[in-house]
Write a structure and sequence with these properties.
Layout: H1 13-23, H2 32-45, H3 66-72, H4 75-86, E1 89-94, E2 97-103, H5 106-112, H6 140-154, H7 157-179, E3 183-185, H8 186-203, H9 210-225, H10 232-255, H11 259-266, H12 271-301, H13 304-318, H14 333-345, E4 352-355, E5 360-362, E6 365-367, E7 372-375, H15 377-380, H16 400-405, H17 424-441, E8 442-446, E9 454-456, E10 460-462, E11 467-472
Parallel strand pairs: 2-7
Antiparallel strand pairs: 1-2, 3-11, 4-7, 5-6, 8-11, 9-10
Helix pairs in contact: 3-4, 6-11, 7-8, 7-17, 8-9, 8-12, 9-10, 12-14, 12-17
Bound molecules: protoporphyrin IX containing FE.
C-alpha cells in the first residue's frame, strides 16, 4: 500500500444532517441520547414509529446479500459503498442475520453503546472453542461478572508493570533472532510473539511451540468460519487442532496458574469455563496484537518522515538502552500516535455486532428488538466527516488536542460499551513495547516485490504476510 488506501467514497450528507438535528440538545443539561429518545417518543405517540424497513438500504436479494458483498469485493468495500449511498444508518442483508442495520456515525454509535448482547448466529463459528457455552455470546447476567473479573487483572497498571520485564525478554529474544537474518515475515513472527506474551500473562508460563499453536488456531477458525458444508477431513483436522490447543492450555494451567486464572476462579467460574476463557483470551490477544504491530511497521516502512521521528524519539528516551522501561512508555507519545493511526487505517478487529433486546431509538428511526446492529469499525475510521483526508497516514491526528476535538466514538479499534475489548490497555502496553524494541534496533524496508494485500478474516491481516528487509540501527552492548 502506498500513502493512500484504495479510493474511499464520500458519505451521503443528507442523513448525517438529519442525525445531527436529532442529536441537538433541547436543554444544555440534556445528553444527546435523551433528546433523541424524547423526540422519538413524540413521534411514537403520534403513531409515526418507523422501523427497519424505513431505514434506507439496498433492495433485498434472494441470497441473503452474499452476492452483493462478493460483488463489492468484500464486506469492508461493501460497507463503504452502502454508507456512501445511503448515509450513516443503513439497512442491509447480512448473511446469518435475519435483520441488520449498519451504524457508521459516532452519535448513533453512542446511542447503541449500552447494548449488552451479541447475535448468537454470527458468532457461532467460535462455539467449538468453548466447552461451557460460547463466551462471545454469554447473556448479560453471566457476562457482567466475567468481564469484571477479566478487567480486574487485564486493565490493571500494576499487573502490566509486573509482567513488563518478562514481556521485554520475549521481545528482545525476537529482536536477537531477527538480528541474525536480513529478511523477516512480520505477521508470523509477531503473532507468535504476542502468543508467548499472553501465555506468560494469562497462563503463567511459556509454551514450547508458539508457531504450532498459531497454526492450530488458524486451522480451527478456517474450518469453522467456512460457511459451506465441511468435509469429514476438515472436521477431523479441526478436531485434532482443537485437542492440541486444549492440551496446551491444560499443560500450562497444571504447571503454574496466574493472577488472571485466580481472578476467574474467585469469580466462581467452573473449571471448564476457566479453560475456555484462557483459550479465548489466547485467541483474542495474539492475532490482534500481532497484526497491530505488523501494520504499524508496514506503514512506517512506507513513510520515512514519521519513521525518522519515531527513531529520534526512541534514541532520545532510551539513550544507550535497547528497550524501554514501563515508565518510559509515557515518554514515547509519537510512537503511540503511530500505533493509533495504524489501528485507524488497519483496525485488527474491523467489525463488531450487537443484537437489540428491546426497541432502540436511532436518529429518526425505531429499530425493533432482535435486530443485528452491525459495527463497521473500519468504515467508521474512514468517515471523512471526522477524519479529513481519511486515507492518509498522519499520526498527528492523535495529538491530545486533535483527539479532544473529535467525537470519542469516531475511533473504535477496541469496540464500545459493555462488550468492548477487555485487553485494550494491555494490548497497548505490549504493542508499544514491541514496537519500541524493534524500531530501536532496526530500520525496516518493504520487500517491494512482495505485495501487501489486506484481507478480512477473523482479524484484518495481510493475505501473504508482510515481508521486510532489516538494517541494524543500534547494537545493544554485549552482556558483561
Ligand atoms: C491490538 C490488539 C487488540 C485489538 C485491536 C482488539 C480488538 C477487539 C475488538 C474490536 C473486540 C470486539 C469489541 C466489541 O464487540 O465492541 C475485542 C473483544 C475482545 N478482546 Fe480484544 N483486541 C486486542 C487485544 C486483546 C488482548 C491483548 C486481549 C486479552 C488479553 C483481548 C481480549 C478480548 C476479549 C476477551 C474480547 C471479548 C469481549 C467481550 O465479549 O466482553 N483483546 N477485541
Amino acid at each position: 500500500m502506498e500513502d493512500k488506501l484504495a479510493g474511499h467514497p464520500q458519505w451521503a450528507p443528507e442523513q448525517a444532517g438529519e442525525i445531527r438535528a436529532y442529536a441537538a440538545p433541547c436543554r444544555p443539561s440534556c445528553p444527546p441520547g435523551a433528546v433523541i429518545v424524547s423526540r422519538l417518543a413524540r413521534r411514537a405517540r403520534s403513531g409515526d414509529r418507523g422501523g427497519v424497513r424505513d431505514i434506507p438500504g439496498p433492495p433485498d436479494r434472494p441470497d441473503s446479500g452474499l452476492s452483493a458483498i462478493t460483488a463489492a469485493g468484500g464486506l469492508h468495500a461493501y460497507q463503504l459503498r452502502l454508507h456512501e449511498r445511503y448515509g450513516p444508518l443503513v439497512r442491509f442483508q447480512l448473511p446469518g442475520a435475519p435483520s441488520a442495520v449498519s451504524v457508521a456515525d459516532p452519535v448513533l454509535l453512542e446511542a447503541t453503546a449500552a447494548i449488552d448482547n451479541r447475535p448468537e448466529r454470527l458468532f457461532e463459528f467460535l462455539a467449538p472453542l468453548c466447552e461451557a457455552g460460547n463466551l462471545q455470546t454469554l447473556p448479560a447476567h453471566e457476562h457482567t461478572p466475567f468481564r469484571r473479573a477479566l478487567l480486574s487483572v487485564l486493565a490493571g497498571r500494576r499487573s502490566h508493570e509486573a509482567h513488563f520485564a518478562a514481556f521485554t525478554a520475549l521481545a528482545t529474544d525476537l529482536a536477537d533472532r531477527w538480528a541474525a537474518t536480513g529478511e523477516v515475515t512480520l505477521q508470523q513472527d509477531l503473532s507468535a510473539l504476542s502468543l508467548r506474551m499472553i501465555c506468560q500473562y494469562a497462563l503463567g508460563g511459556d509454551i514450547d511451540d508458539p508457531a504450532g499453536v498459531v497454526r492450530a488456531f488458524e486451522t480451527v477458525l478456517t474450518v469453522h468460519l467456512g460457511r459451506g458444508p465441511q468435509s469429514d477431513d476438515d472436521l477431523t483436522r479441526a478436531g485434532l487442532a482443537l485437542a492440541h490447543l486444549r492440551g496446551v492450555v491444560d499443560g500450562v494451567l497444571a504447571a503454574g496458574g496466574s493472577d488472571l486464572v485466580a481472578a476467574l476462579d474467585e469469580a466462581g467460574l467452573s473449571a471448564a469455563r476457566i479453560r475456555d476463557s484462557v483459550l479465548m483470551i489466547m485467541l483474542a490477544a495474539h492475532h490482534t496484537t500481532g497484526v497491530a504491530v505488523s501494520w504499524t511497521l508496514h506503514l512506517l516502512s512506507r513513510h520515512p518522515e514519521p519513521a525518522a521521528r519515531v527513531a529520534a524519539e526512541l534514541d532520545a528516551v532510551l539513550g544507550d538502552r535497547p528497550a524501554p522501561s514501563y515508565a518510559d512508555l509515557r515518554r514515547l507519545p509519537y510512537l503511540e500516535r503511530c500505533l493509533k493511526e495504524s489501528m485507524r487505517l488497519f483496525p485488527p478487529g474491523p467489525y463488531g455486532a450487537r443484537e437489540t433486546i428491546g426497541e432502540l431509538a436511532l436518529g429518526p428511526h425505531i429499530v425493533p428488538a432482535g435486530t443485528t446492529i452491525f459495527y463497521p469499525f473500519w468504515a467508521v475510521h474512514l468517515n471523512p466527516e471526522h477524519w479529513p483526508d481519511p486515507e492518509t497516514f498522519d499520526p498527528d491526528r492523535f495529538t491530545p488536542e486533535a483527539s479532544a476535538r473529535r467525537h470519542r466514538y469516531a475511533y473504535l479499534p477496541f469496540g464500545l460499551g459493555p462488550r468492548a475489548c477487555e485487553g485494550a490497555s494491555l494490548a497497548m502496553v505490549e504493542a508499544e513495547l514491541v514496537l519500541a524494541v524493534l524500531l530501536r534496533r532496526f530500520r525496516l524496508e518493504p520487500v517491494e516485490e512482495h505485495p501487501v494485500v489486506p484481507v478480512e478474516r477473523f482479524v484484518l491481516w495481510a493475505e501473504h504476510d508482510i515481508r521486510m528487509r532489516l538494517t541494524t540501527r543500534f547494537r545493544p552492548p554485549a552482556e558483561p
